[in-house]
Amino acid sequence: MGKHAQVRVPMTARERNDRIFAGALLLPSVLITVIFILVPVADSVIKSFLDFKVKNIISGTPGSWNHFGNYIKLFSSGRLGMAVAHTLVFVAAVVIAQFILGMILALILNSDIRFTRFVRSIMMAPWVVPTIISGLIWMWMYQPQYGLLKYLVGIFSGGKMTDFAILNDPNTALLGITIAALWKQIPLTTLLLVSGLTNVSADLLEAATIDGANGVKRFVYITIPSIMSVIKITVSMAIIENFKQFPLFWTMTGGGPDNATTTLAILSYREAFVSNNLGSGAAVTTVWMLLMIVVVFVYNRVFKDVEMN
Amino acid sequence: MGARGKKKIWTMAEYLILAVILLFLLFPLYWVLMTSFKTNMEAYRFPPTMVPEAPNVNSYISLFTEDNFFFIYYKNNFIVSGITAAVTLVLAVMSGYALSRFKIRWNRWIVAAFLSAQMFPIVSRMISLYDLLGKIHLINTRAGLILALTAAMLPFAITLMASFFDGIPRELEEAAIVDGAGRIQTLFQIVMPLVKSGMVAVGIYAFLMTWDDYLHAVTLIQNDSLRTLSAGVALRYLGELSYDWSKVNTISVVGILPIMFLFFFFQKYMVKGLVAGAVKG
Amino acid sequence: MKKQTLALVMAAIMGLTTACSGSGGQTQGTTGAPAQAAEPAKEAESETKAPADAEITEPVTIKFANYAVLEAGYDVYWNQLLEEFAAENPNITVELVTAPYGEIVNTVINMAGGGDMVDLMYGELDWIPTMVEAGMAAPAADVLSSELMADIYPSILEACSIDGVAYGVPMYVSPFLLYYNKDLFEKAGLDPEAPPTTYEEMLEMAPKLAALTTEDGNKVYAFGLTTASVPVSGACLTSSIHNFGGTVLDAEGSLAIDQGFRDAVAMWKTLHESGYNPENSKLKDLRNLFALGQLAMYYDQSWGFNGVKSINPDAADFIASAAPLAGGSGSGESVLQAGTLMVMNNDDARKAATAKLVDFILSEDKISEYFETVTPAYPSRQSMEELQVVKDSALLAGAAGSVGKVKPVTFIPTLSDLNLELCTLAQAVTLSGKDVDTAIAEFEASAANVIQ
After folding, report:
1. Which among A138, A167, A220, C382 counts the fewest CB atoms within 10 Å?
2. Which of A258, A261, A275, A276 is the mutation pick for testing C, counting most C CBs within 10 A?
3. What is the mean pLDDT of residues C416-423?
């Protein structure tokens, strides 16, 4: 910055032009984002406070303020609490499992075993499978009567569990969807972590080995801190993506059985598009967004502290 | 001996874990491929056959002859995803550069807006979005879908792109400007070549993510000749009448293959770029 | 928002179906015949031109929302129908609006919100209250030809009505009837011509059927009742409640849980605990299992046969139908299902063109063809009472008369959501293993939220 100070006078003119130039470069993106994302979202938040049904759209009449009625109804019926719990469990399960499995795979791929290039390439396959199709694939694997999973569970349980249908049991349905989500997401996580690992300074690791640090110690004190930025962005991408997950739930369970997989995404869709109560659906999405913002905020705070250490 | 033996066991364990995880990732694809070559009656056999007993390509034939609307969905998806990726890329380069280089006053707010925009669920803005696109007569058009998808892709693309520009030393541009190059010229001729891999990464990422889109397409398109793949698959094969699993598996294979080839072709660039962006980001 | 009783005039159809089933075997229940005489059915030929039609000289474009146009099993029929219609009516362009079955109502609503209203929509009877609540549906009499309107069985028209106004006309109707596999009955040592008539009889037969295995050694399920979370499952569950003489909603649209309701829920639990019912299945899952000989009996709409056939073309050899079972103190009443054409409010030229299209779809030729090539069902027009395909249909013979024994469902705007709550109730007593009273109490709480 000191350089700028030396030539202050001509710089201000340039700075002003810079500003115009930057503004011009930013304008289209800002406009698109505001018009197609932020305004609709604000509109939705406003609707969440209104009695707003489908007939309001058709007849073009604005909704009427209903004294937080949508929120009160959702909270008091217990549906919202349930959906929040399912969403948080799902996000936590997928993000944690994905990180652990991805990290294990990344460490293996970063060690001196053979075929790593090949493996790195083919392991990406599930990631490019469209979500809808990945839902179909797993529904087929899970099929209650002739699915592969039933067969495998039958074999591994020694013929004791002959009727395993993961999506039909309220206790395991969420797990079933978690597995399908992991299948699609582990590859990218692994890929990002592997690339982080290759950048860890070999000198540092060698020095630590000479100092007598074992593998675990090296991993915790050198590897992890060195790839902190990669971990941070990988995990935050995973949090956001899984918070928003909709198609997998919608195609695989539709929120059932016995509401065991009703997440905020499913609840909002049902309120808005099955019950046609758009105000109520908007209330769910508003809670959903707030929750996501809080989680991401907390996450960033925690990570900031970690980095300080 | 002890240390070597330990190392050997360790390596074997590594191979074992690697095999298990790879099996988890790849077996479902194998399974889908195998099922697509089975007849319906064989597909419904239990215990299942690991390799088709009487492999046949009937479901492929009927898919390519009778159900050939499939190609329309493909074509539409390539057009929509391709243009979306291109538009996203151009806008992301412009905005990413601006955010990275010119620290203007509302920078923080713009960055915050882009970051938060990534987080809003699609369902929450679908109704307003529909209303909006209806007003400008873009419902049921590729242009409307492309605009909506571009908006959804932009925030992440811009943040990623900005991190690439952050990694380019300013001295080069300053030298260029001293040499009398204009700002636009500097951006296009000096800076952009340096972030090529990042651009490829952002472009392919946007392409893959829009290829995956379901909710936008299903809401904004009602005309079958404009429909994209995920929506088309849901429409044709997740209907209420019956499950034709052999065909569902065939459609899955056909739906995956081209995008997988595309990915493997570009993988080198994409991985390098995405990783570089993530590492710096 | 109430819809009155539908049963009475179904006598007309009953007369026809019992007549052709020969041995019959079904009693007519409580429905009477006099209403048939009360309806001065015009002897209108289905091909007769409605007055509005003659004036279509200017080119006009109408929009037809139809999910089935793209669904395998229906697509060929619909596309051909539209081609023929286009050839006959060069001035009318029919623009199709398509979306997945589960999404098409939203699609149509979204379009209308953007100022673009479709003219005609094909879908479930249960979608009517949603379209009316949204303010989109037009009274059918305002759009369709009076000949057609007069020819629809009045009771069926009632089933499409809210406060006495019909908002659509069914192409064809069917109750939730019982399909069963004659081969499996024979294998189990049961008389394939004597399906159960009550739940008790069914429970007596079930162990024999459940003891069977398929050739591959796979389990055979005795009785299928759909419980997975989709609105149509809720309609089927309602039908099962009606079997027991129970009700879900009273005529005013408030929750009316009675003994019949409780009996039905207890039966769902019994079916599950005995392992007779495939868990958490959609109708399409049941159709698959039935087609493969892994399911002995199940409830479906008559056109579910189309799904069965698409999996196993030989299914026609072993499938037979029977009237819905009676349970508890009920008489085996069920719920009417219909492929319904709903009309919307657009300008007169479009209305006239729409009327013409509906006339075409509901012409004797096309309906016969539908029953013959796509799937069997019962006609909705009195003039088709003697329709040969229905008479000849061995498939429908067993269930003859059951279409007259349907109990009306009160149309409330949130019917679909209520249906989903019924599915959740069924899942609660089966998959979650909750006891009947607890599950019903939970259902009451959540349904109350839906209904208000």
Report:
1. A220
2. A258
3. 92
Q: C-alpha dihedral over C364, C368, C370, C372, to 10 degrees? A: -170
Let me know if residue B207 belongs to a domain: yes
pLDDT tens by residue, B156-168: 899 888 888 888 8
The span from the CA of A288 to the CA of A88, in Å, is 11
**What value does the mean pLDDT take over residues C192-211?**
94
Residue appearing with tokens 């990042």 = B198
Regarding whether B178 and B47 lie in a shared domain, the answer is no
Whether the pLDDT of residue C46 is over 70: the answer is no
Inside any domain, residue B73: yes
Contact A276 C130 (CB under 8 A): yes
Amino acid, res. C327: G
Are the Cβ atoms of B45 and C287 closer than 8 angstroms? Answer: no
Q: What is the ipTM of this complex?
A: 0.88
Mind listing the pLDDT tens digit for each residue in A265-274?
Answer: 999 988 888 8
* Mean of per-residue pLDDT scores for chain A: 86
What's the pLDDT at A159? 73
CATH 3.40.190.10 for domain C8-22+58-173+336-397: yes
- B98 shares a domain with B21: no
pLDDT mean across residues, chain B: 84
Smallest Cβ–Cβ distance between B279 and the set A28, A122, A199 belongs to: A199
Is B64 part of a structural domain of the chain?
no
In this complex, do B25 and A187 lie within 8 Å of one another by their Cβ atoms?
A: yes
The residue with greater pLDDT, A161 or B2, is A161
Give tens-digit pLDDT for A159-215.
Answer: 777 778 899 999 999 999 999 999 999 999 998 898 888 878 888 888 888 888 887
Q: Is residue B234 part of a domain?
A: yes
CB contact under 8 A, C106 and B67: no
Q: How far apart are CA C242 and CA C235, in angstroms?
A: 10
**Based on the domain organization, do B235 and B177 belong to the same domain?**
yes
CATH classification number, A48-308, choose in 1.10.3720.10, 3.90.79.10, 1.10.10.920, 1.10.10.10: 1.10.3720.10
- With vertex at residue C372, the alpha carbon angle to CA C371 and CA C378, rounded to the nearest 5 degrees, is 25
Range from A177-191, B175-189, C160-174, C356-370 carrying the lowest mean pLDDT: B175-189
Q: What is the predicted pLDDT for the residue at C102?
A: 81
| Residue A48 in this model has a pLDDT that exceeds 50 | yes
Residue A195 burial (C-beta neighbours within 10 Å; 0-12, 13-18, 19+):
buried
Q: Whole domain around residue B207: which residue ranges?
A: 69-280
In the three-class reduction of DSSP (H, G, I as helix; E, B as strand; rest coil), residue C96 is classed as strand
Say if the Cβ atoms of B235 and C288 lie within 8 Å. Answer: no
- Of the candidates C336, C335, C7, C334, the one whose C-alpha atom is nearest the C-alpha of residue C155 is C7
For chain B, the domain total comes to 2
Residue C41 has pLDDT above 50, yes or no: no
List chain C domain ranges: 8-22+58-173+336-397, 177-334+414-451
C8-22+58-173+336-397 matches C177-334+414-451 in fold: yes
Architecture of the CATH domain C177-334+414-451: 3-Layer(aba) Sandwich (3.40)
C179: three-class secondary structure by DSSP: strand
Burial class (CB in 10 A: 0-12, 13-18, 19+), C58: exposed
Asked if B123 and B224 sit in the same domain, the reply is yes
Q: Cα distance from C66 to chain B (closest Cα, Å)? A: 10
How confident is the model over C370-386, as a mean pLDDT? 89
Please report, for the domain that includes residue B257, its CATH number.
1.10.3720.10
Which residues of chain C lie closer than 8 angstroms to A73, CB-CB? Answer: 449
Contact yes or no for B197/B273 (Cβ under 8 A) = yes
A253 CB neighbours in chain C (<8 A) are: 229
Touching subunits for chain C (3+ Cβ pairs under 8 A): A, B
Where does chain B have alpha helices with state H?
2-36, 40-43, 58-65, 69-101, 107-117, 122-135, 142-166, 171-178, 183-185, 196-211, 215-220, 229-237, 245-280
- State yes or no: pLDDT of C39 exceeds 60: no
